[in-house]
Amino acid sequence: MPQTITEKVVQAHAEGLAPGHEVRAGDMVTVRPFHVMTHDNTGAVMPKFEAIGASRISDPAQPVFTLDHNVQDTSDENLTKYELIREFANTHGVAFFPAGAGIGHQLMIENGFVHPGTLVVASDSHSNMYGALAAVGTPVVRTDAAALWAGSVTWWLVPRTIKVVLEGSLPPGTTGKDVIITLCGLYNSGEVLNAAVEFHGPGVAELSMSERLTISNMTTEWGALVGWFPFDEITAEYLRERAEVLAAKGITNRLTEFMIS
Question: Which helix (H) or strand (E) holds 235?
Fold first, then answer.
């Protein structure tokens, strides 16, 4: 049986596999994610990082810090935490987005930290959102995030894959959110619990990038660990637009044509 897309992407990011071994559901593999995002919980990951005896981040280009969850809290305690996170990012040379910059997952996508074929994780359950860009996005816990900072790799149990075939187009007045809410309602008995959901079929081409992002994000509410969409011209057009925006800011190496095509 051919590998699923999730299995192929995980294989591309796995280390220490036996020669000729094909990654399959149920395998426990060591993976090196392309990026790992933490948000306000960076403040909770930092002491875990120190507790395991780490003093330097193995690959400073791998983590991304985005402060977005508690930005309305202007107490001295929270502002002190935010400042400590900023100082930690500066010390270790980690990409840092302060409070007010935007929502973490959106920042990851808009700033070129996610592109097709990559495995991108975050210490947040809605990491599934990265699947809209034909990546495998999945959550990790804070201890995993600390381990990634320290050694760039972590363990992952490869999930089973559920194929969802979309047909037709959305009726007027409906959105991507209606699609995922409907799926949650129709299949509400654990059919996709802890699975990788891969969307296929002619209906995919009828969905905008915004709708795909919404659906992927909310596969979390459906109980899935991954919500993946295939790469097509809509994906490529969106990424090229983002690459132009980044290039205007002087950032030319995060989204290259090679990564997009």
Answer: helix 233-248
